[in-house]
Amino acid sequence: MALDKSPDSSIDRKNLNMNADLSAEEKATNFGSSHHDSKTTAARIAPVLPHLRGYDFGDDSESDILGKQIELEAGNEIQYRTCSWQKTAALLFSEYICLAIMSFPYSYATLGLVPGLILTVVVAGLVLYTSLVVCQCTVVFAVVATVICWVASLPRTFSALSKLGTASAFFTFVSVLLATIFTAIEPHPAGYNPDPNFVDPVTGIHGGNPIVTAIPVGGVTFVAGFNAFLNISYTFIGQITLPSFIAEMKNPRDFPKALWAVTIAEVILFGLVGSIIYAYTGNQYYTAPAFGSISNQVFKKVSFSFMIPTLIFLGVLYASVSARFIFFRVFEGTKHKSSHTVVGWASWAGILLATWILAFIIAEVIPFFSDLLSLMSSLFDSFFGFIFWGVAYIRMRRVDGGVNWLREQSLYGYIMLVFNILIILIGLFFLGAGTYTSVQAIIDSYAAGAVGGVFTCVSNAL
Fold it and tell me: In 3D, which of 326, 340, 291 has the Cα closest to residue 155?
């Protein structure tokens, strides 16, 4: 079949050719070694989807295919392949550099500063590698936030959202910078008691000056330690959104630039903020998020206020990824996907509205929402963060090498095979131990009477 010239079919090809573009990147980084046409390249990850099997790209190179995609999309009113690597980096910054940063002092207090920093670097490295293989408030506040988030989700391309992402990353940086400075200049953290023999009757926390340890203190349970580890890990894991970002880039080969920039910034920012705040709050006075450790109420409110735009945008980003998954499949091959039509925009807004209403109901009905997030992360991030990418690597090598691929591997090939099997095993460990600790945390919260009711107006402020 000849190449379909209809403009509405061009976005179909971006999902197919994303893999073709990345195969070239693989060759440049020794992840792959042989040339594949577009159909074979897609099959390296999974079988070609039914609605893509009719396309024939012949023997065109990846760059020619990408050029055809951009050319075919040029006449559309809504163009999706418009993200530069800088805009993609802004989206990644807004996704990864968020409120979770302020829980790193808690992880370092539980694990010890040295193991905490080592795990930060190791997890960042693992997530970077697997990513390269791709190449919560009262009911009233929740209602208002849901409406705001729905409106902010309306832009249909990531290029438009990247402007909000840049602003989001800037506000996050200001927020954590202020929180770190305020924590350092205060004479004492919130809850401080000068008597080292004092024991809080509610929390059991001892008084005295903040105690900072390089290794875990005695008595740290497996559940507490593993939860601290998961806290660090889940902050980095976000690869499920990467294919959507890559699919709207002008040049997918530039994706590693965005990924390296964000990973380096993550390690530096997470490590510094976590370490500095932990140094001033110690094992006794840390909170998660760390804004609660600031004793001056003005300082606390000012620093946290800059985090609110990021909380909104992060929800906007994931809602957009989820909504486009549905939208693209409902309106595949129609003018409503690539043109400004009433049906297209009404459907897009409707899908987003349904997504945000569902999110609001889940957040308000389930009284252990934060523990639910940990449970969901254990169940799904273990797969999308580790297992999937290890399996994808092995599948690609099989397609590259044919029947005798395993016997014909070089020493480097065997090392990479063992490394990817290790990544799969890490994912399985996350799935098993992570699920256990998350369920146990829910049980412990109920036992401690820390679980509230549904649709409650009880304050959960810092």
Answer: 340
Spatial CB neighbours of 431, under 8 Å, sequence gap ≥ 6: 378, 379, 382, 383, 387
Prediction pTM value:
0.69
All residues at 6 or more sequence positions from 184 whose CB lies less than 8 Å from its CB, including other chains? 276, 280
C-alpha count within 13 angstroms, C-beta hemisphere, residue 125: 7
Residues in the chain: 462
Alpha helix (H) residue ranges in 331-387: 335-338, 342-365, 369-376, 382
Q: Which residues contact 44 (CB under 8 A, 6 or more apart)?
A: 19, 23, 36, 395, 396, 399, 400
**Do residues 287 and 119 touch, judged by C-beta distance below 8 A?**
no
**Residue closest to 284 by CA, chosen among 196, 369, 211:** 211
Token pair recorded at residue 176? 């954590």
- How do residues 446-457 score in pLDDT, each as one tens digit? 777 766 655 555
Supply 246's token pair.
Answer: 């890559």
333/8 Cα distance (integer angstroms): 5
pLDDT score of 41 = 45
Between 39 and 309, the higher pLDDT residue: 309
